[in-house]
């Protein structure tokens, strides 16, 4: 009977059953994308590549849970919690507790026939990875390194039984002996690298099990259950396609890899998908991942599903063969991982506000002229190049402020910027009356601020030097010379009105069509009779008199005369333009003279002159072609006819013969 009992025990089947579910990847984002190594940017699955935690804002907290979808599912399993902290701007640390990172297997009773002392063994094997920690540092812009350590615990509980045989009664019984426990505790260290050579490309490399510190050992007869400490290398790449899609891929020397993508359609949503592949197995695509995420301010919720293409290869809880520890290269994803749904919630706190926009640079478009400081409110004085550094579109505004010369910052209109893109924001400025009192050129500090929604504070600040010119300072540019034309100056208006009033009889004799031409001629001759042309009164090309000063001083140089006569003509409604000549063979002969609009239709040009070379046909401010007269103000003392003749000759030589306008050494700048 005893032999029968023992014989029955001999035919027991050797099987392995998993009593708990294997851990899935900690982060739903990691599950859905698959190729996660180059995309780690917080504590979620930071063990994939610890170098990525340098992208955390400040404090970062994540909790995760999962639901096995197999028939034996017992509901949600608490996965674990992770916590990270950004340090000193360039460094970061992270900790992870993973209660769900355990694999537990039971090898049922297998009786081995022993004639003298039959012994039965019931083994419970548990692999656990409860803790992980990492530290990372940004060595340079876009390049970081990280080191992570994982506590790996291995435990075999071997239940002992003793068969007690009563030979007299022909019966037997089992006596339970104390469990025999064997344990191994190891800390395995990984090294991760991440490099972003451009804003759109990310590269990663992770060496796994580089160093392993181990204590404890399994007996010789149990060493086959010890996990492998084989070293491996993972390489990954991510590429941002357009403004909202990022694709990634990675492969390992273990012949496993993945490809995936993440799409950010806006409103804080993220849609993800990935494929897991293996090079030494069939099918080639071993699993698929899909997920969705939603971010609102400092909270992120993620969900993902992991499904295997062949459940026959994924033993899960229904393993019907011998346990093979060599197949467990990652505690999170291995041959005993089953289909599951993963959920997580992430929260950032502390100094959580991260700028949505970054100022890449500011380009000044010119200085501030006291005579035309009002124009700065309508025409940009600078352009700020602003980059969207967030993961979703923003509306960015620029603000500009100069202490003392502005009462309040001037804000620009919002500019829409897609993730990763750079746009220019025009900077305008509303100055106060103090600017008009600047006597000499000064350099003051102007501050450019940029804010972006949904942020309420400034995302970045850029201090730049801003030049505020003195009252009579000029930078030599004909574009800036327009700022000295002041047709609204009371002295200019009074002068032009008085001249035309004294010449009302002459004006009455001319036709209406020739009225602008006649007015200009009368103003010029009156102007010429009272003023004296002086060649560079201050021997300086960076000083210009205002028209009221020229009228009061009764003299000036070429620039002074040109701006003064232009102001007189504009004060009576006659449009003018500057002709800027910079001869390429000799820039020292640079010169400025004047064009004024007669408002006469070109087909009636003979009414002014039978010689078409004496006038210019061009469009006026209304876009209508009219007859314009060139005037050389340096011969002002010789009267209108002489100034007209010399101006016409110079225009013909410079523009018609020398092709100055075509070649670019002659410019015509309208004075509106």
Count the beta strands: 31
Task: Provide the β-strand percentage band.
Answer: 35-45%
Q: Which descriptor suits the 3D outline?
A: rod-shaped
Q: Would you identify the CATH architecture of the largest domain?
A: Beta Barrel
In helices, the fraction of residues equals: 10-25%
**Which structural class do you get from the secondary structure elements?**
mainly beta
Strand order of the largest sheet: 2-3-4-6-7-8-9-10-11-12-13-14-15-16
How many domains would you count in the coordinates? 3
Radius of gyration: 43 Å
Q: What is the CATH C level class of the largest domain, in words?
A: Mainly Beta
Beginning-to-end CA distance, first to last residue:
120 Å
User: What is the arithmetic mean of pLDDT?
Assistant: 83
Helical segment count: 10
* Main sheet record: 14 strands, antiparallel, barrel
* Low-confidence sequence ranges: 1-24, 112-120, 315-321
Enter the CATH topology name of the largest domain.
Porin
SSE arrangement:
Elements: H1 2-10, E1 17-18, H2 28-33, E2 59-68, E3 77-87, E4 91-97, E5 102-112, E6 119-140, E7 143-166, E8 171-195, E9 201-216, E10 232-241, E11 245-252, E12 256-266, E13 269-278, E14 285-296, E15 299-308, E16 340-349, E17 357-364, E18 382-388, E19 394-402, E20 410-411, E21 415-417, E22 422-427, E23 442-453, E24 460-468, H3 478-481, H4 490-502, H5 504-509, H6 515-530, E25 532-533, H7 547-553, E26 555-556, H8 558-571, E27 576-581, E28 591-597, E29 616-619, E30 625-631, H9 640-657, H10 660-663, E31 666-671
Helix pairs in contact: 4-8, 7-8
């Amino acid at each position: 009977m005893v032999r029968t009992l023992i014989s029955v025990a001999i035919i027991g089947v050797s099987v392995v059953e998993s009593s708990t579910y294997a851990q899935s990847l900690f982060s739903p984002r990691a599950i859905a994308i698959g190729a996660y190594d180059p995309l780690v940017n917080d504590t979620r699955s930071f063990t994939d590549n610890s170098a990525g935690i340098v992208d955390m804002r400040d404090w970062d907290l994540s909790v995760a849970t999962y639901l096995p979808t197999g028939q034996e599912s017992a509901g949600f399993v608490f996965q674990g919690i992770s916590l990270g902290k950004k340090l000193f701007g360039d460094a970061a640390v992270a900790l992870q507790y993973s209660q769900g990172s355990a694999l537990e297997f039971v090898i049922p009773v297998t009786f081995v026939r022993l004639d003298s002392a039959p012994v039965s063994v019931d083994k419970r094997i548990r692999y656990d990875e409860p803790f992980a920690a990492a530290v990372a540092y940004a060595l340079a812009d876009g390049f970081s390194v990280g080191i992570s350590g994982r506590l790996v615990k291995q435990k075999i509980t071997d239940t002992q039984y003793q068969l007690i045989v009563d030979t007299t009664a022909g019966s037997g019984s089992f006596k339970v002996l104390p469990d025999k426990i064997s344990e191994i505790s190891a800390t395995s260290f990984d090294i991760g690298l991440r490099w972003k050579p451009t804003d759109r490309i990310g590269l990663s490399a992770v060496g796994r099990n580089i160093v392993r510190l181990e204590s404890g050992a399994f007996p010789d007869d149990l060493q086959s259950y010890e996990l492998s400490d084989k070293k491996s290398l993972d390489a990954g790449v991510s590429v941002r396609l357009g403004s909202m899609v990022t694709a990634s891929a990675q492969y390992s020397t273990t012949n496993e890899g993945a490809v995936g993508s993440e799409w950010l359609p806006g409103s804080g949503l993220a849609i993800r998908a990935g494929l897991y592949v293996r090079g030494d197995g069939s099918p080639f695509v071993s699993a698929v991942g899909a997920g969705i995420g939603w971010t609102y301010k400092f909270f992120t919720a993620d969900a993902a599903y992991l499904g295997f293409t062949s459940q026959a290869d994924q033993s899960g809880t229904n393993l019907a063969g011998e346990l093979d520890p060599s197949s467990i290269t990652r505690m999170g994803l291995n041959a005993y991982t089953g289909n599951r749904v993963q959920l997580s919630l992430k929260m950032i706190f502390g100094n959580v506000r991260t700028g949505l926009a970054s100022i890449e640079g500011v380009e000044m478009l010119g200085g501030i002229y006291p005579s035309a400081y009002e124009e700065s409110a309508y025409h940009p004085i600078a352009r700020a190049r602003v980059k969207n550094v967030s993961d979703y579109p923003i509306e960015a505004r620029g603000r500009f402020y100069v202490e003392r010369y502005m009462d309040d910052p001037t804000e620009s209109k919002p500019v829409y910027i897609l993730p990763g893109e750079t746009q220019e924001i025009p900077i305008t400025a509303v100055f106060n009356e103090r600017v008009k009192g600047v006597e000499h050129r000064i350099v003051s500090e102007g501050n450019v601020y940029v804010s972006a929604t949904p942020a309420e504070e400034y995302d970045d600040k850029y201090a730049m030097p801003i030049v505020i010119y003195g009252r009579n300072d000029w930078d030599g540019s004909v574009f800036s010379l327009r700022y000295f034309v002041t047709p609204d100056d009371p002295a200019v208006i009074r002068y032009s009105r008085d001249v035309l009033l004294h010449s009302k009889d002459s004006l009455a004799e001319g036709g209406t069509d020739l009225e602008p031409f006649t007015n200009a001629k009368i103003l010029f001759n009156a102007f010429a009779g009272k003023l004296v042309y002086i060649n560079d009164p201050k021997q300086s090309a960076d000083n210009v008199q205002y028209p009221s000063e020229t009228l009061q001083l009764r003299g000036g140089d070429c620039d002074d005369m040109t701006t003064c006569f232009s102001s007189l003509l504009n004060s009576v409604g006659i449009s003018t333009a500057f002709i800027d000549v910079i001869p390429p063979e000799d820039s020292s002969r640079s010169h400025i003279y004047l064009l004024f609009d007669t408002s006469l239709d070109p087909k009636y040009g003979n009414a002014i002159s039978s010689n078409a070379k004496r006038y210019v046909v061009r469009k006026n401010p209304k876009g209508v072609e009219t007859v314009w007269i060139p005037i050389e103000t340096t011969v002002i003392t010789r009267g209108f006819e002489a100034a007209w003749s010399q101006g016409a000759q110079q225009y013909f030589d410079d523009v018609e013969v020398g092709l100055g306008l075509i070649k670019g050494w002659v410019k015509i700048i309208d004075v509106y």
